[in-house]
Amino acid sequence: xxxxxxxxxxxxxxxxxxxxxxxxxxxxxxxxxxxxxxxxxxxxxxxxxxxxxxxxxxxxxxxxxxxxxxxxxxxxxxxxxxxxxxxxxxxxxxxxxxxxxxxxxxxxxxxxxxxxxxxxxxxxxxxxxxxxxxxxxxxxxxxxxxxxxxxxxxxxxxxxxxxxxxxxxxxxxxxxxxxxxxxxxxxxxxxxxxxxxxxxxxxxxxxxxxxxxxxxxxxxxxxxxxxxxxxxxxxxxxxxxxxxxxxxxxxxxxxxxxxxxxxxxxxxx
Length: 269
Known about the structure:
Layout: E1 2-6, E2 9-13, H1 15-28, E3 33-39, E4 52-56, H2 60-70, H3 77-81, E5 85-88, E6 94-96, H4 100-113, E7 120-126, E8 132-141, E9 148-151, H5 163-174, E10 187-195, H6 198-209, E11 215-218, E12 221-229, E13 235-241, E14 245-251, E15 257-265
Parallel strand pairs: 3-4, 3-7
Antiparallel strand pairs: 1-2, 4-5, 5-6, 7-8, 8-9, 10-15, 11-12, 12-13, 13-14, 14-15
Organism: marine sediment metagenome
Protein name: Alpha-D-phosphohexomutase alpha/beta/alpha domain-containing protein
GO molecular function, one term: intramolecular phosphotransferase activity
């Protein structure tokens, strides 16, 4: 969390708000091209300013795989199999990632299409609980094969290390940028949990599994149900998407709970 004193008053911001605002300022004001790698339940209010959005399961065991993929670092297959990895295409569809090649190809296609081969890309890897890691990627060409690849001159950290992000947001605030003006407050994000023992968790997941790929109606609002799974096709999380809201839920791995993450219009969510 972050307390910011502005106009003589203190304001309290949670990680979702801090990071989304920071990314939006960097993209809109400083024209940074952001490879936005976030856990699926994290705040979506910075997605629209990102160069590409990549979504993962909860935890750095998922986030770190993406950085290794882009830099050509070998990842143990068991870690890839258990990871939940998707990227968002131009139509907002989620495309599953089960190896490095398609992701690198898609990203390089976008870079060439937008003529950004000389650009420095800011890759941010973050989660709603406060973890944040960043690095700077450049595109280089192999002198022998001519193949394009990503490289960085900075240490490769694939675990949570939020210090650079906190330094950056502090610097941006000192320059006069305001978190309160940098994210869309008409969208509200809330987390909720309900108690559920293992048998109840299974029942909840199975009930929604029957509706995977279908549209259901809840309180006169239509939601498209999508199951999000790891690369072993084990469903870990469900997405319910309406025309103005997004809801995710997953069983907790640490206690007898099911966790809900809801993003929607502040007045109607």
